[in-house]
Each structure stands twice: as structure tokens, then as C-alpha cells.
Amino acid sequence: MAPVHARDEIAGVIAAQARSPGGGLIVMPDVFNDANGELIIALATSSGVPAIYPRPVFAETGGLIAYGADLAEQFRQAAGYIDRILKGAKPDDLPIQQPTKFQLFINLKTAGALGLTVPLIMQMTADEVIE
């Protein structure tokens, strides 16, 4: 675990992972990581560090893999909650819901740049494979 709180700390964390045998990154869903996504992707790729990201946009812009909750589905679920609240339900009485649908995006171009081969079964189960 390597919490980062400033943009200038990102390079050091990624460099440390690059020096570590089998090093890699799990980029957590966070506003800071969203704002610095392009830098994180560029440094991870140029350092040869495989990384998994929380949202499809990361894989679409050059990240290796993105896996996370389908935000559109979460918004659809939220609509049901809003409807219940507008009809008088107390928010405290509503059950907590977990995401029910997840998405997997794989960027094969980035995998190639990192010297990685993505198993065919993983490609077949992905929601989107970026070539």
C-alpha cells in the first residue's frame, strides 16, 4: 500500500513498483487518481509496471486493465431509491445496495508494450478489448 497525496509523489511510488519483482499497481477509485489518471498511466506504462484501474476510461486512454462497477447500472439502481424516497420512504429504512454489474476492459496495445500476453479466456470474458 502506498498512499499518494500529491502529484509529485506519483512517480516515486511507480518507480518503487518497477524495482520490485512482480510489482504492479491497483489504482483505487478516487478523485485524486481520476485527476491524475493520464500521468499515472504514462508513468506505469513507461516504467513497465502493470496496473489495474477502477473505470473504463483508464483503459480507453492507455491503461492496461480497468475493472469496476458499471456506473450506468448504479445510476439506474439509484432511480429506484429516489422513487421510493419521493413516495415517502425514509432513507434510513432503505437497505444498502452493492453494485450488481461490473465491467472489464483490457487494452491489448498496452499489454504488448509491457511485454504481457493476455490469456484468450480473459479477452473473451471482457466487456471490451481495446486493440
How are the SSEs ordered, and which strands pair?
Layout: H1 10-19, E1 25-26, H2 31-35, H3 37-46, E2 51-53, H4 56-60, E3 65-69, H5 71-86, E4 102-107, H6 108-113, H7 120-125, E5 128-130
Parallel strand pairs: 1-2, 2-3, 4-5
Antiparallel strand pairs: 3-4
Helix pairs in contact: 1-3
Folded structure, characterized:
- The protein has a 5-stranded mixed beta sheet.
- Helix 4 links the parallel strand 2 (about 50-55) and strand 3.
- It is about 45% helix and about 15% strand.
- The chain has helices at about 10-20, 30-35, 35-45, 55-60, 70-85, 110-115, 120-125, and strands spanning about 25, 50-55, 65-70, 100-105, 130.
- Helix 1 (about 10-20) packs parallel to helix 3 (about 35-45).
- With about 130 residues, it is of the alpha/beta class.
Key phrases:
7 helices; 131 residues; five-stranded mixed sheet; alpha/beta
Which percent range fits the helix content? 40-55%
Low-confidence stretches: none
Taking the sheet with the most strands, its summary is: 5 strands, mixed
How far from one another are the termini?
31 Å
Residue-averaged pLDDT, rounded?
94
* Count of individual helical segments: 7
Which structural class is indicated by helix and strand composition? alpha/beta
What form results from the Cα inertia axes? globular
Strand order of the largest sheet: 1-2-3-4-5
Number of DSSP strand runs: 5
> Beta-strand percentage?
5-15%
- Gyration radius (Cα, Å) is 18 Å
Helix and strand string, N-terminal first?
HEHHEHEHEHHE
